[in-house]
Amino acid sequence: MDTTVYVPADQPAPAPGGAARAVRARSLTKTYGKGEATVRALDGVDVDFEQGRFTAIMGPSGSGKSTLMHLLAGLDSATSGQAFLGSTEITGLNDKALTRLRRDRVGFVFQQFNLLPMFTAEQNITLPVELAGGTADKAWFDTLVDTLGLAGRLTHRPGELSGGQQQRVAIARALIAQPDVVFADEPTGNLDSRSGAEVLSFLRRSVRELGRTIIMVTHDPSAAAYADRAVLIADGRIAGDISDPTPESAMAGLDALRTLEPEVTTRRSGAGA
Amino acid sequence: MATSFPAARLTLAQMRRSAGRLASAGVAIAIGTAFVAATLLAGNVITSTTYGQVAAALADADLAVLDDNLSLTEADLDAARGVEGVAAADAQETSYTELNHGGKSVYQQIIAVASDERLMPLELSDGAWPAAKDEVALPPDVADRLGVEIGDVVTSSRWVIDDEPTTFDDGSEGYDGHDVAEKLTLTGLVDDPYAAYAGTGGAAVMSQAALAQRVTDGLEPGTERTVGAILVALDPAADPAAVDEALAAAVPAATDVTTSEAYAEKQVAQMSGGDTIFLVFVMAFAAVALVVAGLVIANTFQVLVAQRARTLALLRCVGATTGQLYRSVLLEAAVLGTLASLTGIVIGAALVQGGLMIAPTFDLGMPLPEAINLTTPVFVAPLAVGIVVTLAAALAPALAAARVAPLAALRPSDAPNLRKGAGRLRAVLATLMTLGGLALLGVGVALALEGELEIGLMATVGGGSMSLIGVIVGSVFWLPKVTAGIGRLVGTAGPSARLAAANTLRNPRRTAATSTALLIGVTLVGTMTTGAATARVAMDDELNAMYPVDVQISTAISDGEQEAAMAPAVTDAISGVAGLRGTAEVTSLYVETSDSRWPEIQTTVASPDDLRAVVNNPERFDRLQQGTLVVPEQLAKHHELEGLDEIELTGPGGKTTLDIATIDMQYGSAFMVPQDFQAIYPDLRANMIWAGVADGEDAADTFAAVQDAVSTTDEAVEVAGAVVDRNSFQQLIDVILGIVVGLLAVAVVIALIGVANTLSLSVIERNRESAMLRAIGLSKGQLRATLAIEGMLIAGVGAVLGVVLGLLYGWAGSATALAGIGQVTLVVPWAEIALILGVALLAGLVASVVPARAAVRTHPVAALAAE
């Protein structure tokens, strides 16, 4: 069953179904430089991400997928447009409010894992809660450790863990504060394919079994296939939307973006099937 | 040499990239070399100032007749005066006296009025030159201090050798002496325009006859007074060369006849031993500063090499030899050392020049040169020292750089690990030195307590230095553990503190080196502070024992064998002084005994009730009663009279036998009651007044009030007491402590630059980590706090350990050095310790400001970047 639905890039890509929106972007634009040298990294993007789902943002290098994530996560400020986390508009918040928002409502999984080498796995996992001045919910911590298969590794330091184990610790860290949304930036980029598959399965289980919301940026179609939905992005605009992507459909979507000239991409839609 | 070209290019390129980091390390070396340069320049200033003073004392003399054996006599002087072409000739001769007026006294050098004004370094500013034997001219500040004006009378007391030999207690025969006090009339005030006597507190002037008399009185009978130099002024028409020859012929005892300039140079050369000691003393502190600077440099290079590990590995991959990498780091160190040392020399020269320029605004009483004298050593020594220290500090990092494996370039991990752990040899060496040094320290203290003061002191200093070196060398093993312990405590304070504590443990070697740099300075400051505090308390104890009362007023004029009776006017004046809790009339004299071992005893006579009202430890005199001679323990011990029960005393009035009671006291006089005393000396009146300062009154103020009261009577009396000595001791201790701590402060400042440097380097290394923490919710304030706590932890650990070591060394040192004066109470200078720790923590905090500013600039997005 081919569920691929291509929508015009100019129009919003509404989330299918009636689920509540975890993250929304409206005319979100980011430009770098001035005058002649202006680069539009993100060009009036409208997109919604539903709660309790695993969404992949896909696109080739330089497509603007990372910029989109930075803006949605409150890591960077938009040139114009709005970004919402739930009902909170995050565009326009100052650094202090953004820091609080990231601490309390957003989780991150990085390509480089970014664990603190001097802390144990357990200390790394509970770090965000401690930064907020609280203590980790024991039951939730145990659930995460169980789900991610980290029970025997809690006293290890990152240097004593494999890449896949480190990334699972990072996922647990991202989920410990029960954030509204977790952003994962190329989480398998530094892993071999077996560990990568394992990490992606864990991300999917976090969504299915623990009810979390995850938005993953990737350029890898087989990674995107673990998601419930893939949003395609090219040249700073939404270029497609695939429900329940398979490696093949995701690859096909990406191929379509690559074979089209930029100006054609913006005009044509639905082509490539 | 062909291979060195790319290496040099590479070095310079890497230096440009690391310019900021190298610059802050260079500051450490620059401060150290500035210290060395400034010390050498100050030495030059001292030498030229000394020359100025010596030359000034020769006034406008043309020639000097010298005798290295100091045997020129009055006859030689007359012979010199008789030489054709000599206008005037005077012996270069001085004497000393204690001048006293109105309870104030000044110890003063005296020179004679010259026979020609060309031979007189002083100028008369008011009044007339003294002519009679009982006349004197004084420097204006001395007259001020004594409170006298021209025409007033001052009392001069001096030691006069007896005409007949005496048989001493130990059976030997020799000439004893006695104090003689004379009244002198002030005839004039003298200025010292060329600061000839500025170094010795100015000079009083008396007639040549009076000075000759005083010098002769101080010699044993039959000894002729002689001098080492006769200064000569020539007739205007005389030929110096001819007179020179004539003088040599006229004074055969002379070893040399020379110009006054040559004589001044000769004297300065003889005195430069003192300058050398000064230079060695200050250079010791410069050396400490340079060692600390070396630690900072070594640390910086370690970190730079670690951060460049990937580049270095890449270079190895493409064919660089280990030698090239090794030389590249050393070349970098040499360039850094040269630039920093040159900067340091400029700074040092500027500081001394600046000091010379502002010096005239303070009245130092001596002319200083206007400009510094840039001799070759001033330039070469700091440069050489700076380069050598930098190169030495870079040796280990250079070796580490050479050891980076080519494979490291291919590893995906962050900076490849350099050397892991420290060598076993180092651990053994450090342990041996620490334990051996501490043992030697203990032996030194024990030896000193046994009375072997000099050997004990040498052992203590040697043991202390050795154990400190051991501690420094071994710090990499144990200091991280201490940091971990303190970090755990600190870590409970919150997430920032926990992050900071964990961060300090990531590079134990780096943290240890940074803390150690601070530890060195703090240990030495702590040692000096503890030593000073202990010495202060010991001096207090000693003075309390020496002076049973706060204020002692005695007649300055002796009347034959005994001191004159106290004038009733003085007694009246003192009774009017507020702030005294009581006064007692006391008679102090030597009483003869029938015991041949102890022919006379210094005895203080006072009624027990009066005495108890004024002394500081009344309970000591509980056993003073009729029929008893109270003898301080030390005095009894000195005369080997312990165990003696009674003693017979004799005097003009007859004999009396008293029981002996020893008391725990260090005073040099026995005590008896007036009733017993009258039996042997029926006529003698009190010659001293003892007074106690009332509780709550300021001792120094009350002492001054007593001096003022006494001065209104015009009687010649001396006011003495623990207060004066305590003040001068404390001033001495404070001045020495101030100078030493000031010199050590340089090392501490360098160490703090090291803390800032280490933090900056860590911030650069942890850039991605800081970004991740910011991304997951660490606020800018928390990030700043993390670095501030890390800085305070590094500085605090060094300071705490330094203070502990300082206490240990300070106690050991003062127990040894002060062993001679008895039991030493070990003192903890809490206020100073709090100050040291406070300064260290504050400095750690300040050191974190700049690195923290860089850290919070890190954008959270940086955590997401792939490389």
TrEMBL record, chain A:
GO terms for molecular function: ATP binding. It comes from the Bacteria. Residues 23-260 form the ABC transporter domain. SMART domains: AAA (SM00382). Pfam families: ABC_tran (PF00005). Keywords: ATP-binding, Nucleotide-binding, Transport. Signal peptide: none annotated. PANTHER family: ABC TRANSPORTER RELATED, IMPORT ATP-BINDING PROTEIN. This is ABC transporter ATP-binding protein. It comes from Promicromonospora umidemergens. The lineage of its organism: Bacteria, Bacillati, Actinomycetota, Actinomycetes, Micrococcales.
UniProtKB/TrEMBL annotation, chain B:
InterPro entries: ABC3_permease_C, Macrolide_Exporter_MacB. The chain crosses the membrane at residues 21-43, 277-301, 333-359, 379-406, 427-449, 455-479, 516-539, 735-764, 785-810, 830-850. Pfam families: FtsX. The keyword Membrane applies. It is found in: Cell membrane. Coiled coil: none annotated. Residues 284-404, 743-860 form the ABC3 transporter permease C-terminal domain. Keywords: Cell membrane, Membrane, Transmembrane, Transmembrane helix. It is a multi-pass membrane protein. It comes from the Bacteria. The keyword Disulfide bond does not apply. Belongs to the ABC-4 integral membrane protein family. This is FtsX-like permease family protein.
